[in-house]
Write a structure and sequence with these properties.
12 helices; globular; alpha+beta; nine-stranded mixed beta sheet; 508 residues; eight-stranded mixed beta sheet
Length: 508
């Protein structure tokens, strides 16, 4: 294990990527005809792909970068149907049957991962453990008791407990038995290997640009077109947006540390009711148990406090409650939160028959993405799935979504106009080494980062998606859009959408 000083000198690094080999699937070399094209090599896309292949369909997975190196590679890796406090909300704002179907879908996802691990002998540290959502204040206890009642009504193994194996007292917690944790890349690299071959393909470094939703469909990529009867859009944000997803979800970012502690870590998985919430769970590495601890979630692009301070707060929380010997890894997560708190899984738009989407997993993508892959493959294979109506992207649930929809889009409008006014006051001074800032030249805003060696990297500060101004992320050294969550590296290359184009560069 590395000492804290050694780790602090290195940029953020995901535990999951650091402890698995890189992949080297080749890019698409020319046009291709298959039964189903899957855009995105994360847990949703690979789950759908393997199920479709096992049902006899020829599949092509198209990944812009490397498989399982996007959002899936930066998760907390909890396989659980306990998604904070969601079941009382679903029962109240949707209905009892919707809560039950949501529960069944996520419980089935845990079972599906376990079955594949057992059947194929995948060594991915899969382990059944309890999950807890614990109260940070006695004022939250009544809400937890209501959640237990709603979860039990949905058929889940829920109970209210007043003691946990945390090293600090809590007023109470919701406990779900028989949940699970695992190493997502070890699991999904085995799935990708099973997809590739025998008439099915995994293509890396092949960026999808557009979809023609005809019969057959065509996926346009920078390396040729893939023709298919059906298309699954399983990119983090649906780049083929025909249903206003940018206005129906908001992006959030959170932070994780993997720390070595003196003593045994808690055995369960934990999530708090606080705002921002805290999250904990153990994970074995090289024969020792590390503790994953984090939280500090916020809207993408928020700068108060800066992301670097968020990491420091996560470490302070860990050191307050545990005897931390070293911080081994640190990384951030990024996900989209639907306005009605339910992922969008199904047909991408009302007039499009053969293009499907899975998105908006609100930080619970390991079960949510697995369930989405199961639903999408069923819709393609049989036209139906017992849980599909709850997740239908075409749903309209004003009781569940109206307030959040207005609040989130009002905030987006505030960024669009307010950030421009703020940028008018920006100076033309260059930042100090290691820093980034918005400057103006010839009346136009630019994002300028000066690296530790003094080199200047300047890009347009205008996000190509809907022209909001990006913000500097001092922990990740990225430019992040506060409106819809697009992220770019300091040289302007798009990391994640909805933006499809890079930020233009500028010489200073």
């Amino acid at each position: 294990m590395n000492s804290p000083s050694q780790r602090e000198e290195r940029p953020p690094e995901s535990l999951w990527l650091a402890t698995t080999p890189t992949t080297d699937y080749g890019p698409l070399a020319d046009g291709l005809d298959v039964d189903v094209a899957v855009v995105g090599g994360g847990i949703t896309g690979l789950t759908a792909a393997i199920r479709l292949k096992e049902a006899g369909r020829d599949v092509a997975v198209v990944e812009a970068d490397r498989v399982v190196e996007g959002v899936t590679g930066y998760t907390t890796a909890k396989l659980t149907s306990q998604h904070g406090l969601v079941y009382d909300f679903l029962r109240t704002k949707f209905d009892r049957e919707a809560a039950r179907k949501y529960a069944r879908a996520n419980e089935a996802a845990i079972d599906a991962v376990e079955s594949r691990v057992d059947d194929e002998g995948i060594d991915c540290d899969f382990e059944r453990v309890p999950a807890y959502t614990y109260a940070e204040s006695p004022d939250d206890v009544d809400e937890l008791r209501e959640e237990v009642e709603a979860a039990k009504d949905a058929g889940l193994p829920a109970s209210f407990v007043e003691s946990t194996d945390l090293p600090f007292d809590v007023p109470g917690a919701v406990r779900f038995d028989d949940q699970a944790q695992f190493h997502p890349r070890k699991y999904l690299l085995a799935v990708a290997e099973a997809v590739h071959g025998d008439g099915s393909y995994v293509f890396e470094e092949t960026k999808a640009l557009d979809v023609d939703p005809g019969e057959p469909c065509e996926v346009e990529t920078e390396r040729g077109d893939v023709t298919a009867d059906d298309v699954v859009v399983a990119s983090h944000f649906p780049f083929f947006d025909r249903n206003g997803y940018f206005a129906r979800m908001h992006p959030k970012q959170a932070y994780l540390l993997a720390v070595e502690i003196d003593g045994e870590p808690p055995e369960g998985m934990y999530y708090s009711t606080g705002s921002p919430a805290s999250t904990l769970r153990p994970h074995p590495v090289e024969g020792e148990d590390l503790l994953l601890v984090g939280g500090q979630g916020h809207k993408v692009g928020a700068a108060d406090p800066p992301p670097s301070e968020r990491y420091r707060r996560c470490e302070a929380f860990a050191r307050e409650h545990f005897d931390v010997e070293s911080v081994e890894y640190r990384w951030s997560t990024h996900d989209y939160y639907p306005v009605d708190r339910v992922p969008f899984v199904g047909r991408v738009g009302p007039t499009i028959e053969h293009v499907y989407v899975g998105t908006g997993f609100k930080g619970w993508g390991m079960t949510g993405g697995t369930a989405a892959g199961m639903i999408l493959s069923d819709l393609i294979l049989t036209g139906g799935n017992p849980w599909a109506d709850v997740f239908d992207p075409l749903r309209v649930k004003p009781r569940a979504s109206a307030k959040s929809f207005v609040e989130e889009n009002t905030e987006v409008a505030g960024h669009f106009f307010g950030d421009r006014v703020e940028s008018l006051l920006a100076s033309d001074d260059l930042p100090s080494p290691g820093e980034g800032k918005i400057t103006r030249e010839d009346g136009r805003p630019y994002g300028v980062y000066r690296d530790d060696d003094g080199g200047v990297h300047a890009v347009s500060a205008v996000c190509p998606h809907m022209k909001c101004l990006v913000k500097w992320n001092d922990a990740e050294r990225t430019w992040d859009c506060p409106c819809h969550g697009s992220r770019f590296d300091y040289d302007g290359e798009v990391i994640s959408g909805p933006a499809l184009e890079d930020l233009p560069t500028k010489e200073f």
